[in-house]
Fold this protein.
Amino acid sequence: MKKSVLALLLAACMLLAMMAGCGSAAEPAASGAGAEGSAAEAEAPAAEPETEAEAEPAAEAETPADSAVEPEEPAEPAEEIVLPPYEPGDDTPVTMLFQFMPFFQSWFPEGWGSSPWWDEFESRTNTTWELREISGMAWQENVNLLCASNDLPDVVSNIGNVYSGGLSQAIRDEMILDLSPLVEENAPYYYNAISQDEYTMRTIINDDGEMGGMYAVNSKVYPVTNGLWIRKDWLDGIGMDVPRTTEDMKKVLAGFRDTYGADIGLYQMVHMNENKVFTAVEGVWNAFGSTDFYLEGDEVRFGPVQDYYFDYLAFLKDLAQDGLFLTSSMTDQTSMTLFASGGIGIQGDDPDNLTANIALLPEEEQAKVEMVPMAALGEPTELGPRASIANGEGSISISTNCEAPEAVLHAIDYLFTEEGAILSSYGIEGLTFEYEDGQPQLTDLILKDPDGMPARAAMGYFCNPGLPGIIDPDRSHKYWSDAQKSGYGIWESAYTGSSMTFPKDALSLTTEEQDSIAVYYNDMVTYATEWANGVVFGDTELTDAEIETYRKTMTDSMHIEEITGVYQAAYDRFLARDVG
């Protein structure tokens, strides 16, 4: 049957969740690989049983009476979870404050609410959704104004990113609902998806067991989804291999500049809304150490005051002085523009963007370009990416102004059913996908837009414009080149997974801790970033005296030890969260 893929998609998600829950949280890469193998075994046909005539009688063991072993009790079979069939609820209108990315808006001038996906979702769930669309650039201001006037609509996307104190504080301030008393009964498919994986559940609830939002759930764990890409055609032209050390990278970048005029060389996008010190250059920081808060065992550390951090800055400074390194914070030009002009030879990006970037080059150049994924420099780091199958795509919260939260939960729960999972990942049959050999395949509407719309933008608009659901991360991979497909494995090789990445975004801070962070954190980030920029792109020298002054300022004036102490206490509570 063509829709057998539905059951496979959900089965993969549930199996991965159970495997992640059984394994150690410090081994995310292993849990993902193990789950994938188990899924393959589950699909294998059972061995034919031997007939009575074929079976050889077992030899009787001669065991002394005093060494007899009591037979083990047979393991109890896992309780099968049977969920009720999904039935649309009563006709319910829902208002939603929706955040859109202005970069994609040029392709959708009528707004994201004009996507035919909403009509299909409304028809299947018997709800009507009215979107109040706000640009990501004006999101924080508008959300805060609506909170101040107590005028939030029924549903808000991504409020935790901009509300002071995050989702926990928004619950305490009675801006959004705690969904934990409601979700199991009103969204059983969603609850089943998140509750079988302890680490995932730990990232979704707060220290008090409250649940401030619903999240998309991946059907597969992908520890590393982006990394460095390098111009292989240029490498061949200068007779060098993909660099594995910082010294080799500098030689390669110099060769790109001298031979092909790549006057930027290495480019890194800086996401200013992440509120992190300076920037972690993909694939480069690994050779030195974390540039943010990280874990050493269960102890929280801060990278930008460690010894290795100054070696990291020294390397980037060396590149920048030779015109071989640039970040988006130091230029008004986009990475796509700089790539199209031939200025970039190495850059960090998602595989989905590769084709779009190449398409911007002059037509005669496109056939010559060969981009390949590049492993991170240095030896594999112990820091393992998070193993949670939940992600921030399409996260929503329900405001306290909502009169029918149960109906909203029930509607979104549809996207976690077998049928709804296809709508969530692939959109509408006949428009955004067709079945081929029982498997959904995205159409050219998504993958080959004549105006050059990136597949990511098309999937975001046509396949699921912004609600939580089960997401199949492989949905566009069938059309990737061999180089694109190899990216995840190559990037994952940089991590041993023996120590978890610090889950800062999943922590809940007390009111007192929030006050402490509010007083110190922004000033600390501003000072440390400006100092690092002065080192890499300015005239600040990395002398022992300069480093000592920086460290003393970070301790005495920027209170980094107090900030780290706050995160340590919050992380200890995170580990102790009751997910039973």
